[in-house]
Amino acid sequence: MTTETIIVPAISIASATKSYGTGTTILKDISLNIAKKEFVSIIGPSGCGKSTLLKLVAGLSPITSGTIAVDGMTPANAREIVSFIFQDATLLPWRTVRQNIVLGLELEGMARDRRTEKVNEVLHLVGLTHVADSYPRQLSGGMKMRVSIARALATRPQVLLLDEPFAALDEMTRDRINEDLLRLRADQGWTSLFVTHSVAEAVFLSTRILVLAPHPGRVAHDIAIDLPFPRNEETRSTPAYEQTVIEISRALRSVSASSVNAGGAAHP
Ligand SMILES: Nc1ncnc2c1ncn2[C@@H]1O[C@H](COP(=O)(O)OP(=O)(O)OP(=O)(O)O)[C@@H](O)[C@H]1O
């Protein structure tokens, strides 16, 4: 008798196609497996379907054909193990930082003592203990985004979906939050699917980058990022990092150029 280990990918996408209503095909025949703990960034020209792919995985929009499995479940059944972080921190202005973070745990029905413990833990993780009782209007953009991250992590997700979460932040804040995100990932080990327009950010964070080509959206390049972990501020000035940014930029330019030739909109 042989012993066989079956490894279920964190996210498995097979021949996924998506159209909104009776409109044109946005994503066509996307197939890929994402292993547990991978950090996968999705880049591509504006409108190529990056956010749409994330919404399909989150179960926020139905797939037109093909299948998507999240830890072996349909996206709708996997909601409990998935957290989503959007560009807009989407905090409730009338609730304090602590009350915003606790929201998901309240909905889960977690006991009050346990909730307090969890919230204190994530506040500490993102360095916001000192503003726990402040309101969102009293925080900087970077702090609001940290609250949003804390809220997403409080439920201990296995899969983290991030849709251009740091696009509105200044470069230094963005770099710092990226470093924090990698530290949190090393500690908690979730699987991430991350949409960004920044090649530098994608290279810094990812174990793998998918470059989508547009009209219809499809995976044109699937590139492993072999830079060693831990990555930190110094990583950004290493020749290996700089070279990888050049390679990924070239891959992105190749799909943007073909979209212009095909009459599509290229991202600047
Ligand atoms: N709810 C919707 N109904 C109809 N069409 C939609 C809907 N959401 C997105 N689309 C269309 O699907 C296409 C892909 O949009 P999507 O937001 O996924 O692209 P994207 O690559 O994330 O773009 P960007 O980089 O500009 O954020 C676009 O043409 C968009 O207009």
Structure description:
The chain has 268 residues and is of the alpha/beta class. It has a domain at 11-84 and 160-261: Rossmann fold, CATH 3.40.50. Helices cover 36% and strands 22% of the residues. It has 7 helices and 9 strands, in the order βββαββαααβαβαββα. The chain has helices at residues 50-58, 97-108, 112-125, 141-154, 171-188, 199-205, 239-261; strands at 11-19, 25-34, 39-43, 65-70, 82-86, 159-163, 191-195, 208-213, 218-224. The strands form 2 sheets. Strands 5-6-7-3-8-9 form a 6-stranded mixed sheet, with helices on both faces. A 3-stranded antiparallel sheet has the order 2-1-4, with helices on one face. Strand 1 and strand 2 form a beta hairpin. Helix 2 crosses helix 3 (112-125) and helix 6 packs across helix 7. It is globular and about 50 Å long. The structure holds adenosine-5'-triphosphate. Adenosine-5'-triphosphate binds at residues 20, 26, 44, 46-52.
Secondary-structure blueprint:
Blueprint: E1 11-19, E2 25-34, E3 39-43, H1 50-58, E4 65-70, E5 82-86, H2 97-108, H3 112-125, H4 141-154, E6 159-163, H5 171-188, E7 191-195, H6 199-205, E8 208-213, E9 218-224, H7 239-261
Parallel strand pairs: 3-7, 3-8, 5-6, 6-7
Antiparallel strand pairs: 1-2, 1-4, 8-9
Helix pairs in contact: 2-3, 2-4, 3-4, 6-7
Bound molecules: adenosine-5'-triphosphate.
